[in-house]
């Protein structure tokens, strides 16, 4: 039996009547586990939650005498076998307490609520927690009504998760004024991350990541997700009586009429529907409305003048992802507006004057279709956030506008004409509160002009810069540069200071290696480098011990932590060594090495540089047709009887997929010591006959799994291959069988 105590709770955290409770997690169900439970809880009232069952069972199957106990049992989810030896009221009493039950008329409502929850553990826990201490029958009756509508959808989609990137979530909090009073956006982000961490620790949010990328590069950006039951329970707890009207994702095709609106709403969300239009006759009375979200209604194309007539307290307006072409002039009268989100409004052509919106802090026009900036922009003295990035029809920013936006902390803008760059840069450099700058340039020359003239890069400022055809940014680090589909020469790239992440994609005239780019020697803070579709590249580095300039340029990679090489047809080696001496620190901090579709390379890691790769955590080689060896062997290895040991003390993942010519990971006499390994993934490597990972040995000489191993994945290879592949010990496959996945 394997048990793991997750947390112990004493006192009244779960219930004023609880004297002791704890949460025990069992990794597997067995008769012995149920016998232990039965022997220890016969005198207690408790809730037993059996989560993620993959089989049907009966409560007597393992000898657990639930009828002798005070027990509420939940089974969830694959086979839903809900059983309630205690009454529904007792289950609420365990969490809420019995004081509330004395309220006349409440017991019947509670029983109906338990019926609606239908045994969903999370639903019961959340609603009980959110309603704890509430003794108003009307509030409970409203909770029952809303729960009835929502649990129906929950039962049909129990895995539905609402995902958001952390950045999006924190931006919403900033817009809502949660962090008002903090002097800088960086401080708001720090506070936001702390809140998300706290919500995750309390199981109201779950950790998540979302693949984001461009040009073949995919990065999993940290995010957060919320289970739909938690979301629905949260909506119930802030229902209409608090001024919230939330009808998001309900497939609405039209706005509710005025009778369907909450009285005096404060927050209104109609996002992610299919609303086609706003009726011209609709002018809802919303004298206290502060937030209106109509985003992600892709066919909403028009809003009449009268719609905003009685929304003078509006602070946040979100029309992102709609087909709107013009905004009504009544927007100009929303003098309390602090946030206007219009990103991805690709059909948007016209905005009315913003001169009266002196309290506007955020204007987001990312990827919008506007051709000219609205009048009155220079009057937005409170504006802290301005995003004009990737607006294909916007050709210039009029002189003087940026200069007047003295409160700007975040600026995203395209510089597409030489005259515009020169003029606007002088204004940008004078924005003393600027914390983050994101820019797009159409060619190298304009980019160089920008870097040469903008000396303010010496300041502690974050930047994301895109040169060429890329239409998005990863915001992976505080200092990143993306160069795509440009023609360059050796001396023509002027790199900004403090560069951490560098993407190079589709460059022409780049030369045979990065070592030939003289100005690269200034990128001494580089942490990540991604190279794709550069036809001339034959190697990443050329090391020549007789050339001081070569050694200086190679020193740029001393701090590099991640190197990704993608679709480089002429790449034949990672490092080309000339001369006897080898710089000791090249790649010494490299953690992640990835190769994808590099068809010319045969050997990955040169033996003479192997000691510099001691910090490697991940090796990934995919679709490299000619790859034969991961660790290059010497000709003398074949005749030697000595055993070679290659140590990778931090290697966590080894992924080798679609390598038809791969014959060996290292020489026949070599073994890899990597006790930190967590995952080995191998797929479509038919010529690979041996996996040289050395397993730790027990006192009796038998092998044991590496202490951190989680999985060995074999992709699209028959089980016969696994049976035939050799390991360093004849009993290794038996030991590793529990970790094997096909």
SS strand fraction: 15-25%
Q: What is the CA-CA span between the terminal residues?
A: 27 Å
How helical, in percent, are the residues?
10-25%
Q: What is the arithmetic mean of pLDDT? A: 79
Instruction: Report the principal-axis shape.
Output: flat
Main sheet characteristics:
20 strands, parallel
Structural category: alpha/beta
- Gyration radius, to the nearest Å? 31 Å
Structure annotation, total helices: 14
Number of strands: 33
Low-confidence stretches: 1-27, 52-87, 151-160
Write the layout of secondary structure elements.
Elements: E1 3-10, E2 20-26, H1 31-40, E3 45-53, E4 70-77, H2 88-96, H3 106-117, H4 121-130, H5 137-156, E5 161-165, H6 166-175, H7 185-201, E6 206-214, E7 217-227, H8 228-237, E8 244-246, E9 267-269, E10 291-293, E11 316-318, E12 339-341, E13 362-364, E14 385-387, H9 401-404, E15 410-415, H10 418-428, E16 436-441, H11 444-453, E17 462-467, E18 479-484, E19 501-505, E20 528-532, E21 541-544, H12 548-554, E22 562-566, E23 575-578, E24 592-596, E25 603-605, E26 618-622, E27 629-631, E28 644-647, E29 653-657, E30 670-673, E31 679-683, E32 711-715, H13 719-724, H14 732-736, E33 740-741
Parallel strand pairs: 3-4, 8-9, 9-10, 10-11, 11-12, 12-13, 13-14, 14-15, 15-16, 16-17, 17-18, 18-19, 19-20, 20-22, 21-23, 22-24, 24-26, 25-27, 26-29, 28-30, 29-31, 31-32, 32-33
Antiparallel strand pairs: 1-2, 5-7, 6-7
């Amino acid at each position: 039996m394997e048990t793991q105590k997750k947390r112990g709770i004493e006192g009244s955290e779960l219930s004023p009547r609880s004297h002791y409770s704890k949460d025990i997690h069992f990794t597997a169900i067995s008769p012995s586990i149920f016998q232990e439970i039965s022997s220890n809880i016969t005198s207690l009232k408790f809730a037993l939650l059996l989560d993620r069952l993959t089989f049907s069972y009966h409560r007597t199957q393992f000898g657990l005498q639930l009828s002798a106990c005070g027990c509420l049992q939940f089974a969830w989810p694959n086979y839903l076998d809900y059983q309630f030896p205690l009454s529904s009221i007792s289950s609420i009493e365990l969490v809420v307490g019995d004081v509330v039950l004395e309220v006349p008329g409440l017991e019947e409502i509670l029983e109906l609520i338990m019926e609606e929850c239908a045994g969903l553990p999370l639903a019961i826990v959340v609603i009980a927690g959110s309603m704890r201490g509430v003794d108003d029958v009307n509030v409970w009756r409203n909770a029952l009504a809303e729960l009835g509508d929502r649990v129906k959808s929950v039962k049909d989609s129990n895995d539905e998760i609402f995902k958001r990137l952390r950045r999006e979530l924190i931006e919403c909090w900033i817009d809502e004024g949660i962090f008002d009073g903090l002097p800088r956006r960086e401080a708001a982000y720090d506070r936001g991350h702390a809140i998300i961490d706290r919500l995750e620790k309390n199981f109201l949010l779950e950790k998540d990541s979302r693949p984001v990328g461009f040009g073949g590069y995919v990065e999993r950006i940290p995010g957060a997700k919320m289970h739909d039951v938690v979301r629905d329970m949260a909506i119930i707890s802030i229902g209409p009586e608090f001024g919230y009207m939330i009808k998001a994702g309900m497939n609405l095709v039209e706005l509710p009429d005025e009778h369907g609106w909450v009285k005096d709403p404060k927050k209104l969300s109609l996002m992610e529907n299919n609303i086609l239009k706003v009726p011209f006759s609709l002018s809802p009375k919303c004298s206290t409305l502060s937030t209106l979200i109509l985003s992600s209604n892709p066919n909403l194309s028009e809003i009449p003048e009268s719609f905003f007539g009685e929304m003078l307290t509006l602070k946040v307006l979100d029309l992102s992802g709609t087909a709107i072409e013009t905004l009504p002039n009544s927007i100009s009268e929303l003098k309390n507006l602090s946030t206007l989100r219009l990103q991805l409004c690709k059909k948007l052509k016209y905005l009315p004057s913003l001169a009266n919106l002196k309290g506007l802090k955020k204007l987001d026009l990312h990827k919008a279709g506007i051709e000219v900036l609205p009048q009155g922009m220079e009057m937005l003295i409170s504006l802290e956030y301005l995003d004009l990035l990737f607006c294909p029809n916007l050709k210039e920013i009029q002189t003087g506008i940026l200069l007047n936006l003295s409160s700007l902390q975040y600026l995203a803008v395209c510089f597409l004409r030489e005259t515009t760059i020169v003029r606007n840069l002088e204004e940008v450099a004078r924005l003393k509160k600027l914390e983050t700058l994101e820019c797009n340039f159409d060619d190298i020359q304009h980019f160089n002009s920008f870097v040469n003239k903008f000396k303010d890069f010496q300041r502690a400022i974050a930047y994301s810069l895109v040169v060429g055809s890329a239409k998005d940014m990863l915001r992976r680090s505080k200092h990143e540069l993306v160069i795509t589909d440009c023609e360059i020469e050796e001396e023509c790239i002027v790199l900004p200071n403090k560069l951490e992440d560098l993407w190079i994609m589709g460059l022409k005239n780049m030369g045979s290696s990065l070592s030939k780019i003289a100005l690269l020697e200034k990128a001494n803070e580089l942490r990540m480098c991604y190279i794709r579709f550069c036809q001339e590249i034959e190697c990443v580095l050329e090391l020549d011990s007789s050339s001081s300039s070569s050694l200086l340029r190679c020193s740029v990679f001393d701090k590099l932590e991640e190197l990704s090489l993608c679709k480089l047809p002429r790449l034949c080696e990672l490092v080309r060594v000339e001369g006897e001496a080898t710089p000791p620190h090249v790649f010494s901090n490299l953690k992640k090495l990835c190769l994808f579709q590099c068809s010319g390379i045969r050997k990955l890691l040169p033996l003479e540089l192997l000691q510099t790769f001691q910090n490697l955590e991940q090796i990934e080689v995919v679709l490299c047709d000619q790859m034969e060896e991961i660790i290059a062997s010497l000709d003398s290895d074949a005749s030697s009887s000595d055993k070679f040991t290659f140590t990778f003390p931090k290697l966590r993942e080894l992924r080798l997929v679609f390598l038809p010519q791969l014959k060996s990971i290292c020489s026949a006499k070599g073994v890899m010591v990597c006790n930190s390994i967590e995952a080995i993934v191998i797929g479509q490597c038919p010529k690979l006959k041996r996996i040289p990972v050395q397993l730790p040995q027990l006192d009796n000489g038998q092998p044991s799994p590496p202490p951190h191993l989680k999985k060995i994945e074999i992709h699209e290879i028959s089980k016969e291959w696994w049976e035939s592949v050799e390991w360093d010990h004849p009993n290794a496959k038996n030991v590793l069988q529990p970790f094997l996945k096909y």
